[in-house]
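Q:
Just now I want nothing more than another pair of eyes on a protein record. Here is the record:
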Amino acid sequence: MFENTTFIVYCCFAVAVLCGLVASAVWYGKHRTKMLALSYVVRFLTSEQKDALKRAGIPFETVRLSGGIEGVRFGAIQSKRVLRTLNAKLVSSFASSNKCDEVILHFVPAADSELRDFKVSVDGKLRSNKRTVVAAVRDLLMPSVRKNIVLHTACVKAAPIRDDDFHVFLHSAESGSANVNTPEQIWYAPVSSGYQSFPPSGRGVPFIDATSNFVVAELIDNCLYLHPDVLCDREDRKRNAVTQFFVDRGWSRWFSPQLGLLVRILQNVKEELVADQYLTEIINTLKSDGLVTDRSAAERYTVTTEGLSGRRQEVFQSLVRALLLPVVTSYVRIVHCGGRVRSPAAAGGPFNIYIASSPSGSQLLDTPTSIWGYRLLKSEKAFVPSTQGLPVVDDQGFIVAELLDSNLYLHSSFIHYGTKAEAALLARILLEVRKELTGMTGLTPAELDRRVAKHFESECERQLAYGVVPANRVDAVKAELRQTQSNYRTLLKSAVAAESELYRVEAAPTDELGREFDALLRIPKVKDVKVTRDHIVVSTDILNCTDPRDRVAHEIGAFEIFIPVNQNNAVIWKNMTRRVDGDYRNMNAPHVNNEGLACLGNVKDVFPALIAKREFAAAIEVAIAFVESVNVDDKWGKHINRWPLARTDGTAKQEGEL
């Protein structure tokens, strides 16, 4: 009886197992295509990697992916051979199209004995597949930085660490808080929703995803800040020991999709870490096009810089040496003018490159978002063309620079960080300048005028062709037209003011100017007057000011007052006797801060009007009167009682005296 019961139980168990297997087989057959992609596609493979696949006999096809990026598709059955041929690891996959998954590969670099002594350490807790993350950081960054790497996991703002190591901060920034919305994709890799990113500080090299204009990371000195939460550590805390076992061994396809985002970001970052590497690539490309041939000039002449340092300096010097020295065949001087007008140097000296400058005019134009297709990393102001030299014009009609004799004026900075894209833009600008220099050799003044006229004619024809607007660009062209109209109004106002000033100066005889200078010296309390290129500098006697609350006079001090000859600049007061702590520390006067700038109140429009009319004597009288009057209801002026009391003998009563 007992044996029959046991036999029945075993039979029932066997039938149940068999039914389970049959049901599983039926379910798998029904859902097989959803579980296993029939093919994979990968982006950003180099031509060398494609050649390696061909040599290995692995069939693949080239396809066009989102964003117009070229990709390589291969059958899923070939995945192991592909990984082995490319010496790569599959770190993430996500749905791309029906029966096709897009994969992100981590390419393991060739062994380098010089890197054996460098390590990657983790500062803090890293819950998500620590071994794989450390391996990705080491393989992608170590060949470029060639130093120890410290991976910081604190999700807070952190000040740069300046030592001998290279620091990577995950989900961090130098300043600010995580309050920026993260896009759904970064460099075509999906991002888990619900996580805020840090904003960039604006002090370092930004890494921008061109599809979303999102600043993904920022490089400040030897510190790399990754702004989004690339690992989503909060989700990883739910893992159990079995899941972690597979993740730690790199089998993270279903367990850590964000690891692919980290790899994709680091692959884009590593391109910018070594300036000389991408400069060499650009110069080699130019060599292959026959644009860099004569290297003797680079050895015979020198290139010096003023106002540049670090990556920007290296980019300017290297590209100028490669592209311009063979043409100018002279010593080249590069000067960053910071938005100041610079007079052209006489011929016969060095070739001068003035950055953010012009021979005349002001910075009134907005720079475009891109020049020759290269996106500008900063929006800033550019000089209006002076029309004195030969213009260098991009394909959209923006005048980037002017060539005047042996002087090249870049109308804006353009190169802020020395990134790879900025270096390519500078190379394009210098190539255009090189073309103009080559065509100007040996020209007479009349021939040069005809060349400028031909240049203008060609530009008019190009603009006319550009005026035929496709339907998909109507809104964009309307916006451009509105901006152009705004720029035109600004330029017209500036031109009228400049013309009026020119007529006034030309109409003023020399003896009248002399009388104006004598009038300045006759102003009460004026000791001396000096005239510089940009200012009239007035030295005064001791100036006093009376506190209306108690009618007590206080000694403010003797001043140097800088009256600008350009109405766009501010009047500066410098106390040559003392500084006093008022609403700010080290104030020059009750209404003048420590930098010499004033809170002008209801007289803020007086100085520009007087300077525009060249009535400098009146401007100086107003500037002196400004120091000798006070508004005690103002938060700055109420502290006049902190200045020492004035005495009738001209000295100041010190604190503690009766």
Summary: The longest strand covers residues 535-547. The longest helix spans residues 2-35.
